[in-house]
Amino acid sequence: MRIGNLNIAGKVVCAPLAGISTPVFRLLARRMGAAVVYSEMVSTHGLVQKNKKTEEMLFFYPEESPVGIQIFGADPEVMFRSTQIVSKRNPDLIDLNFGCPVKKVVNKNGGAAVLKDLGLTKALVEAAVAGSSVPVTVKLRSGWDEYTKVFAEAGKVCEEAGASAITLHARTRSKLFSGTADWNDIKKLKETVTIPVIGNGDVTSGEEAARMLDETGCDAVMIGRGALGNPRIFAEINHFLDQGQPAADPTIDEKTTLIMDHARLLSDYDGEQRAMLRMRRIVGWYVKGWKDAAIIRRQVTTIATLDDLKSLLVDYKNGIMEDNQHAS
């Protein structure tokens, strides 16, 4: 897949996830085989106002490359200035979010609300392209609701305005994250535009990724929620696409090693104390579906150090978990 001047090796990319797509999360995804990773979405207004926390969201490790910084906003002039700011950080691409469904974003005419005004859509893409020194891509939803699906028209507008690729989350804004993604929308978009199309929605395995690629003709698939607590999903999908069969299930040792790798990277990035607070939530994602997962989730709420986490995982592997709350 070629995005502007970038040659992307691979067909599975890691979605931008608000509050989740930190540098550590992205680094793990790249190590596990994600072809591209994206930051969580960054406010264009925050950037031009030089908000410190917003500017910190632009940080990425060199090893993440190719990495995209995703931004959102609804003012073309602010979009132009913000892409100039982001370009100075030298990411591989800049992605525009026209798909976020949450109220605090769409109430300011951003995210999926942009799709209600294709004139604004065009102006925002043109402004971003004019301000950016790297390829500009776009992430869309199918439309505002089932009665106003505009993904094909929006895709054409984005391409004509200079976008180098489009990701389509094949749900409307009204669906949020419920129901089933309509992959036929991805197929129709691919038939409408000539730039690369990345499909997003309901892919959680190698078999599903292969089916999306086959049924829609899209150039790559994007994985979002399926990567929570499972960065191995990128390796597993790549294995299936290469070999035509599922990868072997990871052992408990492999799973717990990955958790500790995540924790150590997060400690290096954020300091051990803050990292362990974050790991309480993250471990809950990793152990979903494990035997005695509820016990682990309760006990992990008391960890304060890397050694605490390691001891908890060693106890689990050795079968000596104790539930102090006597849960059933």
What descriptive keywords fit this protein?
alpha/beta, TIM Barrel, two-stranded antiparallel ribbon, Non-ribosomal Peptide Synthetase Peptidyl Carrier Protein, Chain A, nine-stranded parallel beta sheet, 13% strand, 328 residues, 2 domains, disordered C terminus
Outline the secondary-structure elements.
Layout: E1 2-3, E2 6-7, E3 12-14, H1 23-31, E4 37-38, E5 42-43, H2 44-48, H3 52-56, E6 67-72, H4 76-87, E7 93-98, H5 103-106, H6 118-131, E8 136-141, H7 151-161, E9 165-169, H8 183-192, E10 197-200, H9 206-216, E11 220-223, H10 233-243, H11 252-270, H12 272-286, H13 293-299, H14 306-317
Helix pairs in contact: 1-11, 4-6, 6-7, 7-8, 9-10, 11-12, 11-14
Question: Can you walk through the features of this model?
Answer:
- The N and C termini lie far apart (50 Å).
- It is globular and about 60 Å long.
- Strands 3, 4, 5, 6, 7, 8, 9, 10 and 11 form a nine-stranded parallel sheet that branches. The protein has a two-stranded antiparallel ribbon with strand order 1-2.
- Helix 1 (23-31) runs antiparallel to helix 11 (252-270), helix 4 packs parallel to helix 6 and helix 6 (118-131) packs parallel to helix 7.
- The longest helix has 19 residues, at 252-270.
- The protein is 44% helix and 13% strand.
- Helix 4 links the parallel strand 6 (67-72) and strand 7.
- The chain has two domains: 2-243, TIM Barrel, CATH 3.20.20; 252-317, Orthogonal Bundle (Non-ribosomal Peptide Synthetase Peptidyl Carrier Protein, Chain A).
- It has 14 helices and eleven strands.
- The chain has 328 residues and is α/β, with parallel strands linked by helices.
